[in-house]
Amino acid sequence: MFRLFTFRTSWLLWLSVIFGITALVPADSASGQSLKVDEEVTIKAAVPTDREAENWWRHRHQAKTKLKDSMEQVDLLFVGDSITQGWENPGKEIWQEYYGDRHALNLGFSGDLTEHVLWRLRNGEIEYISPRVAVVMIGTNNTGRRMEKAEHTAEGIRQVVKLLKGKLPETEILLLGIFPRDAKPRSPKRKLNDEINEIISRFADEDRVHYLNINEEFLNEKGELSREVMPDLLHPNAKGYEIWARAMEPKLRELLGED
C-alpha cells in the first residue's frame, strides 16, 4: 500500500514538472513567487485549449496569423478577449486615432478565456514578430463563465505573460487590470475580478512587465459602472474605448519610447 501511494504521488509530481498544468505551480512566476492553490487540481485556466470547432474562431485565428505575416512590422500588440476585439467595432474610430499609425495588431477574440489565449499564442499568432509593446488584458470570461477562483485565473494570466516574455524577448508587456463589470462595486463578479487584479498586480517585475489599472476611469464617485460607458456593464462603447485609450496613453508612450 505504501509503495503504491509513493508511486502514485511520484507520478503526479512528475506530470506537474513536465506539463506545469496541475495546481502544484512552479515558483518562477513573473513576481518570483508561486501561487498556492489546492493540491492535485488541474488549473484549466493554465492549460492551452483551442476553440477550433467554432468556425468563426478558427477562421479569425487563421486570418490574424496571415495578417501578422503580411504586415511590414508589428510595433504594438493587443492581446485579449471580446473587450479587445471591440477595438474593431465600437472602438474602431478611436483605434484609428490612437493606433492607426503605430503598426498595431489586434489579437482580441470574443469569448476567449486565458487558456484560449495561451493556445493561440503558441500556434502562430506571434511567430516572427518583435513588437515594442504588447498590451494584455484577459480573464473576465474566466470569471463570467466559471466563476473561477481568483488564483486560478491569475495563474492563467501568469502563463500568458510568461509565454510572451519567452517568445518575444525584446517586447515590453503592459498588463492591464481586468476592467470592472456589473453596476455595483460589491457584485460577486466585480469582486472576483478585483481579487484577480490584486494578484496579477504583483506580476510587474520592474523590467519588462508593467502593470496598469485604469478601472477608476470607468466608474463614478460611488464606484458604480454606468451604461453610458459600458451598455451591457461589460463591453465598452465608443465612449468607453476613448476612456481606455486616453488613460493608457501616457504609459504606452513611455514604453514605446515616444516621450
What would your notes on this structure say?
By secondary structure, the chain is α/β, with parallel strands linked by helices. Helices cover 43% and strands 9% of the residues. Strands 2-1-3-4-5 form a five-stranded parallel β-sheet, with helices on both faces. Helix 8 links the parallel strand 4 and strand 5. The protein is globular and about 45 Å long. The chain starts with a helix and ends with a helix.
Write the layout of secondary structure elements.
Blueprint: H1 2-19, H2 55-70, E1 76-80, H3 82-85, H4 92-99, E2 104-108, H5 114-122, E3 133-137, H6 140-146, H7 150-167, E4 172-176, H8 188-200, E5 209-212, H9 238-256
Parallel strand pairs: 1-2, 1-3, 3-4, 4-5
Helix pairs in contact: 4-9, 5-7, 7-8
Strand elements, count: 5
Largest sheet: 5 strands, parallel
| Rg calc | 19 Å
Helix coverage percent: 40-55%
Overall pLDDT level? 88
Distance between the termini: 66 Å
Q: DSSP helix count?
A: 9
Uncertain regions spanning at least 5 consecutive residues: 1-40
Compact description:
With 259 residues, this protein is of the alpha/beta class. 43% of the residues lie in helices and 9% in strands. It contains nine helices and five strands, in the order ααβααβαβααβαβα.
Key features?
alpha/beta; five-stranded parallel beta sheet; 9 helices; 5 strands; globular; disordered N terminus
